[in-house]
Amino acid sequence: MTHLTLQAVTKRFHTAYAVDHVDLAVPDGKLVCFLGPSGCGKTTLLRIIAGLETPSSGTVAFAGRDLTHVPANQRDFGMVFQSLALFPHMTVAQNIAYPLRLRRVARDTQAARVAELLDLIQLPHMADRPVSRLSGGQRQRVAIARAIASSPKLLLLDEPLSALDAKLREAMQVEIRLLQQRLGITTIMVTHDQREAMTMADEIVVMEKGRIAQVGKPLDIYRNPVSEFVADFIGLGNILPVTLDGPDRIGLPGGQQIIVDAALRTSGAAGDVRLLIRPEDVSMRAAVADPGPNVLAGKVAFIRDVGSSLEATIDCAGFTLTAATTPRETPDLQVGMPIFAELPPHACKLIAARTAH
Ligand code: ADP
Ligand code: MG
C-alpha cells in the first residue's frame, strides 16, 4: 500500500524553482531518504510534506486524502529538524511529553507513554535530567522520542545527525534504522550523505536541482545509476569520457580500446558517453603474463591505506583510475611501482554524459 503520494509538486521562490514537478509514492512502513547536494530542494520538499510550506502547484495526499492545504498541526506527522529544537530548560520527560500535553492527553496516559518511550530509546533513568545535560547522542534519541510520542503516521527527519561527530553519527544511523523497523513507521529522512542514505534507506530519492534524478533501492542506484550526476553522487566511481567504437568496444581517453558487455549499453548512452567503473571492480596485479584486452598498464600514484580498506590511484596513459581492495589482498603495493589494472567487461557501465548547464 502507498501512503504518501506527491503529484507534480512544485515550489517557486520568486522565479527560482526549489522543487520542480516532483512525483513520488512513499510505500507504507519504509524508510525513504531524500539525497542530494546542498540546495537541491530536499528541505523544501520535506517541509511541503510536513505542511510547513505550501506548494506553488501540485498535490500532497496521504492515505487517499488530499492534504495539500491542511495545516501542519492537523497532519499528524512527527518531525525532527537539524537543530533538534528541544526545550533546553525542560527535562527529558517533559520534552517527550510535550506533544501529548498539547493534545491534552490525560496525565497518567502521558506518564505511561513517556515511560514506554524512555525504554524504547534506552534512557529510562534519565527522565528527570534537563536536556541541557545530555550528550549529543542522547539528545538525538530524545528528539526522536518526542517526534513519535503521539504515534504519528509519518516521521520526517531533516538531517537529524549532521551535528554529530562521525563515529556517533554512524552508530545513530543504525539505531534509528532499527527503531524505525521495529515500529514499522513510514519515515522520510533528508541527508546529503550518500553513505548515510545507503546505510539506512529502503529507497533513495536522488535529487538534483529540485527534480528527482533517480528513485530506487540503494544498491540498484549504486549499480545502475541513470546519469553521470547520480553515478558521481552515489559512491566512489571512475567516470571516464569514452568513444563508442563498436557494439561491444569503447575507446578510453588514452586511445586504448576495451571490451564492454554489449547488453549493458543502455539506450540512453548515445552521443556523449561516460564509462563508469566502481573502484572495487578494478582489480590490480603486479605482473601479467598475457594481458587481455581489458588489462591496462599503469603506475601506482597514491595509496590510501586505512587498515580496513585500501584505495590506490593508478596513473594510466591519459587518465587516472581508482582501485579499491583490502590491505590483506594487496600487501606489496608501493607508490611508483608499475601495475596492471583489469576492468572486467561486465563491470563497465556506459552512461550518458552530464548535460551542460
Ligand atoms: P536543501 O535542503 O537540499 O539544501 P533547500 O530546500 O533548503 O535545499 O533549498 C532549495 C533552494 O530553494 C535553494 O536554492 C534555496 O536557496 C531556496 N530556498 C529555500 N527556502 C527559501 C525561501 N524561504 N526563500 C527563498 N528561497 C528559498
Ligand atoms: Mg536542507
UniProtKB/TrEMBL annotation:
Signal peptide as annotated in the record: none
SUPFAM superfamilies xref list: MOP-like, P-loop containing nucleoside triphosphate hydrolases
Keywords from the UniProt entry: ATP-binding, Cell inner membrane, Cell membrane, Membrane, Nucleotide-binding, Transport
Molecular function GO labels: ABC-type transporter activity; ATP binding; ATP hydrolysis activity
Superkingdom of the source species: Bacteria
Tagged with keyword ATP-binding: yes
Gene Ontology cellular component annotations, sorted alphabetically: ATP-binding cassette (ABC) transporter complex
Alphabetical list of InterPro entries matching this protein: AAA+_ATPase (IPR003593), ABC_SmlMolc_Importer (IPR050093), ABC_transporter-like_ATP-bd (IPR003439), ABC_transporter-like_CS (IPR017871), Mo/tungstate-bd_C_term_dom (IPR008995), P-loop_NTPase (IPR027417), Transp-assoc_OB_typ2 (IPR013611)
Domain ABC transporter per the UniProt entry, residue ranges: 4-234
Classification via Gene3D superfamilies: 2.40.50.100, P-loop containing nucleotide triphosphate hydrolases
Protein name: ABC spermidine/putrescine transporter, ATPase subunit
The organism of origin for this protein: Caballeronia catudaia
